[in-house]
Amino acid sequence: MGLWGWLCGLFAGPVWGSARRSPQWGRVRAMVLDGATCSACGVDRGLEVHHIEPFHIRPDLELEPSNLIPLCERCHLVFGHLGCWRCHNPLVAMDAATHKGRVHEYRGAHHG
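Request: output the structure for the sequence above.
Response:
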């Protein structure tokens, strides 16, 4: 468990801010992560589910698949939160896809 997982554990109760986590969240999270890779770098380890529109701002989108994106712990901080856990990036999906394309292009050119 990385730092983010530990921090989330501090807030593992049913209430985060004024919104309550859905009892369905665990199932939806597992579905998003099943067979997933990081949307920004392509790794398949240490994945987390990032809410494009933050849960504390839009709790109605908590389970909406189009609002969820799998990111590894590092990319979650860099792309999802712009390097600051208190921030969010509304363009995370586009930024992650652009970066993944660059990673694929670079690795493809150098790893045959």
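The radius of gyration is 15 Å.
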